[in-house]
Amino acid sequence: MFSSSMIMAILPELLLLTLGLLVLIFDIIWKKKESGRNLGWLTAGGLLLILVVSAFLAKPAESALVFGGMLRYDMMGYVFKMLFIFGAMLTTLFMMDSEKLGNRGESYILLLVATIGMNLMASAADLIMLYLAIETTSIPMYILAGFLRDDKKSTEAGLKYLLFGAMASTVMLYGFSLIFGFTGTTALVAITGFSVPLALGVIVLIMVGIAFKISLAPFHFWAPDVYEGAPTPITGFLSTASKAAGFAVLMRLFIGLFPATGEFADDWTMIMAVLATVTMTVGNVVALSQTNIKRMLAYSSIAHAGYALVGVVSVAKLDAGELGVGSVTFYLIAYVMTNLAAFGIIAAFSKIAGSDEISAYAGMSRRNSGLALAMLVAFLSLTGMPPFGGFVAKVFVFAAAVKAGMIWLALVGILNSIVGVYYYLTVLKVVYLHRMEGENEEAHPIPLTRPYAIALTVLSFAILLIGVIFGPWFDIASSAAQGLF
Amino acid sequence: MTFPILSVIIFSPIVAALIILVMPAERKTEIRMTALVTAAFALILSLWVYLNYDQAAAGYQFIEKYAWMPQLGISLHLGVDGISTPLVLLTGVVMFTGVIISWGIDDRPREFFAFLFLLASGVFGVFVALDLFMLFFFYEIAVFPMYLLIAIWGWVKTREYAAMKLTLYLFIGSVIALVGALAMYFESGMGTFNMLALETANFSPEFQKIWFLPVFLGFAVLGGIWPFHNWSPDGHVAAPTAVSMFHAGVLMKLGAFAALRVGIMLLPVGAQYWSWLILAFATVNVVYGAFIAMTQTDLKYMIGFSSVSHMGLVVLGFATLTPEGMTGAGVQMFSHGVMTALFFAATGMVYDRAHTRQIPELGGMIKPLPFVGITFIIGGLVSMGMPGFSGFVAEFPIFMGVWMVKPWVAILAVISIVITAAYIMLAIRRTFFGEMPKEFEGHITPISVMDKVALTLLSGLMIGLGVFPQIMVPMVATGVENVLRLLGGA
Considering its fold, how many domains does chain A have in total? Predict the structure, then answer.
């Protein structure tokens, strides 16, 4: 049956599609020479408009299944959609002055299509829809990762991502087919009646697919190579929005399949807890020895997936569930802002300095003190220091773990964040303390173009805002739990 | 609605830091003036709070409460009691003198003052926070600027090592305490981080015994408690003068204060159960710190270890759980803060001119720097616990308290006074008297008027408190009464 709520449920996606078509048309109309920046402003402006319009119009009054149960129109989908659109907007700004990326209309269209896919991932309520959404996200991302055709590392990144990604989604598809074969339905709400071996098999197979998406150890091997090779703005998008989409799927899927009242809640909680421990530890320990900043941030983002997973663990506990979803969502909001900023800074810096080695950042605070300050904000937020978003976010996920009675997991998380302190501060030390060779930093300034300046200012303030006025943000984050259970 | 003085005190340094950050980097004089005006403003406000604290009424005053995150029961809940009021004043004093002492910093002063003020905001915040979450929030804000301040402006030889060591120690301590705080939050079942409410939570004795040590020691790391004191002398030495002043003068009190506020006041049964262990640790602190200080040849290391020793007295006073001991500890926090700030300021002035802090290489400094010499001697007398100076007012009750609990511990700890006297007097004689080495001739320029203002302020406070203990002791005693009420005694 058709109803107006069906339009509202996919309003952001419809608008994104329209914007994509507009970009496609103007890519042909505008002359190649000046079209790059114009297309970028068009995309970024369009995304801002979509963000505002959908924020007001697409907010669901109550949860409902739409399109024959394919999508669920609820707060969780809404919150995550806003986050993805915001992330895409900032990524567009970072892409604009990126060489061989920002002056091509295709890159913006691919980004928009990937965003549509993520939006659908966050609201899919049916296994088939879910699979389609994941592929809609992944395929453009494969292309974007390998977008720099002349760059060996970028093509390698694209290919590697494709091969790993295809493998992981195949395995996940096996999991889906097992569910359909035994229960006869693909609608999340209708799936019940697992036997023990089936449940275990399904959990393992599906987890492989999702673990790949959010780069959990031991399915993280693709991440450092892809992150290093892909164009930096794309890496930023990949490590934030794409990861957040994976978490949205993870929460929705497991709350749907194995609710806290069911018999398998404890099993998958345990699996998650172990995965979280391994992921945090691997990410942080390996990050210690990195000399390339993109690889370091890749491992750091693996570690952050682990922290967020600490919050997911508590989702399966009856009384901690809402705090769990709220804390994970809050964590992802803070993490998306922070990591986008971090990769944006790297993009802006390497554009001038031509290097991603950590040692190349020596003397950066004297070359551009504003950029160094933005880096301070982003890295301290990653470390988990107040008054930045990362601190409260970490406290909330650890609080969720303590509430769920898993104090040991919170302790593991805390030990890990101490390791994090070391490598994040080491980078800041290079930025603020070390000098360039010849100590003539003033002769090598790092000018910021307007899109970078706008994006980094917005993100720095957002990180500060989340970290200080966290009440309203937590309201938004925990509203994602409404009607989920 | 009354004037929200405490939040103004907390947030004015942050606002000033933001203003300073947007000023052009080359306007160094304007940046310094902004910093000085802000520091003076904060000092005046904290003095006003001190003078207007109603001792007869006691309890928490100047209370402000704003809902910050009602979902989890977090509020910006501020207030001061008899213990924290002197510490707020102390922070104001150290901040003001620290800015004066840092006048000569020429390498990126904009960033320096911005980070220093962020630190100051965090410190003020911890002292006045009545909400457990906010206390942690401000505590972490106070910790991380230290890393940058030491790593960027510190002593070239050890700054990178010392800054990282300090940050890791303090971070580990605080996050372990944080888990304890979260455990309290959920165990109480009240859904609030309000410490005044949590005081009435009546946690089960088992819970308190388990969590007291992590919480107390986690914070006490910052107080320099043995065996977790190792970061502190390294940090003192590596830090630039103003940061050493902040570090030893105020930050270490932050640790002791939070250990009292969260550890002892929220988990009183645990405190009683474990007090013997804390007493033992603190005694080692006092005696061992003094012995190590005696063997140092670097003036700053000597003061660093003497800080460890003196902070041990604070924890010792807390651990007695007696009115005398705790009151002494409260006064000692103020007295030691002022004294160490003075020591580091004076040492910094000597080092800036002689370019060495090795005691054997110095000598005869009293002639070119009479003012520095005299104030250093005053600091020394305070450190030795001479009557007529603030050190006596603080240390005497602590030893009384210890005597009441464990006389032999008191005897053991009193040894430290003798050792302290020995190394302080040795240091004074070798640094300021005797023959001045030839190479210093003509290099030792007199200190500026501003430096004199700072030194006068600091030494004046110590003498004032020594001669008129009434200006602080009764106030601290009212705060201690509240602690003892929670402990179930007195």
Answer: 1
Query: Chain A contact for B108, CB < 8 A?
Result: yes
Burial class (CB in 10 A: 0-12, 13-18, 19+), A166: middle
Whether A271 is covered by a domain: the verdict is: yes
Work out how many domains chain B is built from and give that number. Answer: 1
Categorize the per-residue pLDDT at A53 as very low, low, confident or very high, splitting at 50, 70 and 90.
very high
The alpha carbon of residue A387 is apart from the nearest alpha carbon of chain B, in Å, by: 7
Q: Of the candidates B141, B159, B168, which has its C-beta nearest A386's C-beta?
A: B141
pTM of the model: 0.89
Whether residue A276 is contained in a domain is answered as yes
Residue in chain A lying closest to B68 (CA): A471
Q: Kindly give the residue spans of alpha helices, DSSP state H, lying in A258-388.
A: 265-288, 293-313, 321-353, 364-367, 369-383
Mutate to test the interface with A, among B75, B131, B137, B184 (most CBs of A within 10 A): B137
DSSP state for residue B105 in the 8-state scheme: -
Alpha helices in B296-389 (DSSP H): 299-320, 323-354, 370-384
Structural domain boundaries enclosing B267:
5-487
Q: 459-478 in A: which are within 8 Å (CB) of B?
A: 470-471, 474-475, 478
Kindly list the residues from chain A whose CB atom is less than 8 angstroms away from the CB atom of residue B140.
385-386, 391
Q: What ipTM describes this predicted complex?
A: 0.83
Q: Using CA atoms, how far apart are residues B68 and B80, in angstroms rounded to an integer?
A: 19
Q: Which residues have a Cβ under 8 Å from the Cβ of B151 and sit 6 or more positions away?
A: A429, A432, A433, B159, B160, B163, B164
Q: Has residue B490 got a pLDDT over 50?
A: no
For residue B69, the SS3 value is strand
* Segment (H or E) for B66: strand B61-69
Give a yes or no: residue A263 inside a domain: yes
pLDDT band at A85 (very low <50, low <70, confident <90, very high): very high
Range of the domain at A445: 258-485
Tens digit of each residue's pLDDT (9 = 90 or more) over B240-261 = 888 888 888 888 888 899 998 8
